[in-house]
Amino acid sequence: MIRALARVTALAVAALLLFALQQTTPGYSEITGPITQHGVAGTTTNARGFTLRVEKVVLAERLRWQAFGRSYDRDTGGLWAVAVVEVEGTPATTALSGATWLAASGLRFEASERAESFRGFLRGRRLEPGLPQRGLLIFEIGRDAARNGALLVSMSRWPRLDTQLRITIPDERIEQAETLDLETLT
């Protein structure tokens, strides 16, 4: 009788232990997710394949620029967040494919493709070692996502087991404009 009770108790303890292990084991996406490297706007932050320094972010209602002999004028239902950055590929040629604005609420806004024709647009552009490039990462964000945000920047659009920079943007690095001429930033 005592032996049977001991077996049942051992079996119950083992089942509870296995249940606890199952509930606390991270999921596949967490295990293989990005390796976050934290930084702050105004300082240079290093990733595995590039370095990045965010100079400032300008929030605007409208954007203007010239490209291909034509004027472009874009507005949005929220705000444009234009990050002025300097980036360099290290130690080999690379490109920034992942650029996301992370709002304090957790909402994510991918870099806008509506301004890709601007010559200073950096997402997807080739980056060479030893040749830093100054350019822009442009996002369309909600009005409530403008403050206390961060930039998530990586070589891959969905980084797995690779570096993703998380650059916090303090309020003193944020400027505002009604209409922003992109030519004045590069």
TrEMBL record:
Assigned keywords, A-Z: Signal
Record's signal peptide: 1-20
Domain of life: Bacteria
This protein's name: DUF4352 domain-containing protein
Organism from which the protein derives: Bosea robiniae
Lineage of origin: Bacteria, Pseudomonadati, Pseudomonadota, Alphaproteobacteria, Hyphomicrobiales
